[in-house]
Design a protein that fits this description.
Elements lengths: L1 H27 L6 H8 L3 H8 L2 H25 L4 H12 L7 H12 L4 H27 L9 H20 L7 H15 L4
Pfam family, one: TetR_N
Keywords: DNA-binding, Repressor, Transcription, Transcription regulation
Organism: Streptomyces cremeus
Length: 201
């Protein structure tokens, strides 16, 4: 029983560290996040954080996994709703796009993309997290076509991949704060693209 309590406490501690890391990234940017800065925010030591994560790279990866897991639960709830496929697709777009220029999840994604080609574990983690979005989008498209809400799609997987690539591009523009591309404009552009790529019936 004591061992189980320790494991639970450890999970709580990790969640608290990841939550605080995401908050720090949103407030001060990714470059300002160091183990010592995070330790100061948490009132602990850098060594304590290293005990759980081993390195800053692993901390960042786990922070992204933690954030993606929460969004995965939101997507599961979305897919379970009794709403039309086109409404689900629109809500999927809203979940996918960053909330603004300082969205910590997207700042982590951009960092992961830059490091993944030279880091096999990071590349595998990227593919794993991407797969969840791809699978759920394919489900929405397949259901929409089957129920006569969308025009037939010859290759659902390819169309979903195309849409996700477009969303990645829009998201990067929002996070980088490029002129004329805030969340509202990105969402409008995404909706216009969806109308062309997945036309309603």
């Amino acid at each position: 029983m004591a061992g189980a309590a320790r494991r639970r406490n450890g999970l709580v501690a990790q969640d608290r560290m990841l939550e605080e890391a995401m908050a720090a990234i949103a407030e001060d940017g990714l470059a300002a996040l160091t183990m010592s800065a995070l330790a100061d925010r948490l009132g602990t030591s850098g060594g304590h954080i290293l005990y759980y994560f081993g390195s800053k790279d692993l901390l960042l990866l786990e922070a992204l996994r933690w954030s993606e897991a929460a969004l995965g639960e939101e997507r599961a709830a979305l897919l379970a709703r009794r709403t039309a496929a086109e409404r689900k697709l629109d809500q999927f777009l809203e979940l996918y796009l960053p909330r603004g220029a300082r969205d910590p999840r997207w700042m982590l994604w951009i960092e992961l993309w830059a490091r993944a080609p030279a880091n096999e574990p990071l590349r595998r983690a990227q593919e794993e997290m991407d797969r969840g979005w791809q699978d759920d989008l394919e489900r929405i498209l397949t259901t929409g076509v089957a129920r006569g809400r969308f025009a037939p799609v010859a290759d659902v997987a390819a169309r979903a991949s195309e849409l996700l690539a477009l969303l990645d591009g829009l998201s990067t523009r929002v996070v980088l704060g490029q002129r004329g591309t805030d969340r509202r404009q990105a969402l409008s552009a995404a909706r216009s693209a969806v109308e062309r790529l997945v036309p309603p019936l």
